[in-house]
Amino acid sequence: MQVLDFRLSGAVVRVTPGSPATVSVHRIARTRSTDVSGATASLSDAAGGASLTEPGRILPGRIDFGGDLPSARVTPSTLAAARALMDVFGAGPDLDAGAIEGSEYAVVVDDASGVAPATVAATGASNSTDATASTGSTDSPGVPAPKLGGDIPDPDFFAFDVETANADEGSVIQFGLAAVRDGKVTATYSWPCKPPAGLEDFDEANIAVHGITPADVVDAPTFSERAEEFGRLVDGTPVVAHNAKFDFTALKRGCAAAGIDVPDVAYACTYEWARRVGLQVENYRLTTLAREAGAADFAHHDACDDAVACAEVALWLMREHPGDEPTLNPVKYTENLGMEMGMLFGTRLVPMRTTGRSQVGGAGAGRRHAGSRGRSGGAARDRRAKWDAVKAPDVIPAKNEDADSNGLLYGQRVTLTGDFAPYDKGRLWELIADAGADINKGVTKKTTILVAGPWDSMTSKEKKAREYKEQGQNIEIWDEKQLFTVLGLEEEPPF
How many Å is the maximal CA-CA distance in the chain? Predict the structure, then answer.
């Protein structure tokens, strides 16, 4: 018997023809995990209480069912599948094969084998033309659910993203992964989870970003179970994330809160890659880079969709900025950039770092740190820098003489130090200069504001600024959030 699988966000809705036809909801979408249990009701009961709230600009939509079935989230990328499902609900209590053949946004699954025919063209979740990468599960007695990873060949790398419940990075509530092999995404994994004990509170600000509520994860596996699944799935395969510092800090903090060992991971960061290459873009946010890469529209802040977008950005960077040794291997590409992979192991999170000159062409790639001129040991500090992209740009923009004289930056002499993710330092310089300030690469006795972004330890610029301040110089020391507020920038992770 053939059934229909509608892939929504965080759920697979299965419609089984018959008299009467039935509907079941599985809480995990786009995954090959063994967790495929779901609630079942007759088609007439489900359709009798069915309603669709379409997604808005920020918040996701929702599809509700009758028959005590759980609801499912609907994002812009899965809206077509949700609408098609509502059409099927209108077919009446008895569903025949004609409804299967006419459903464009569902995967047809052979319930006797659990395998989706390769001829199925559209899933609705991403308008993909490859239905075999996310085959349906089966509820048939005696037929085992597919094992994690199934028969998909070992990937070349995984792309990874998480969503969190609150401001603590460890409050992970969704894992998203995309497996990449031979230059394309071959499988996706969307794993909701309950956050670790002590980190269960959901902030309204976070819900407004990703739309995941406590009710959405109340029946989900624990963070510990998901982290262990992540470790088994990755198992030595390189992982790429966008702003990887956030995602792997989240994994590390979540494991610490849950009292479990962190998975050993070697990782790269598309955010750092893009900065190292020196892409001339408005900013290095995932949505911006995905657009530049020509990736399909995606539901930003759905961890799985973000992971797929990250994978597409990674492949695009490796293809468009290949250097002397073209590769689609993230480890080799990182080496081509004159960097080392980051590492997560034990209790340590070791960030990516710069080891030499980039072999990949691109504006800004491989420049020396202009801010270290005239200081003993400056070249050594440059070689040890974790992120080559935090170095000062070569060209200082001229200040805007016609800026608002009442602005906090007007007439100031400003120096930046540290990291200012997700913003490019050159772009920040332009905004500061446009507000009527002079830009200084180093700290001098004329500097009036030093903005210190995050760094592992106090930078030499900040040390000098504090020394001048103690000597009576009128110099303010801001953190990056103060600068973002003054400039009207309020972006914070996740990106």
Answer: 86
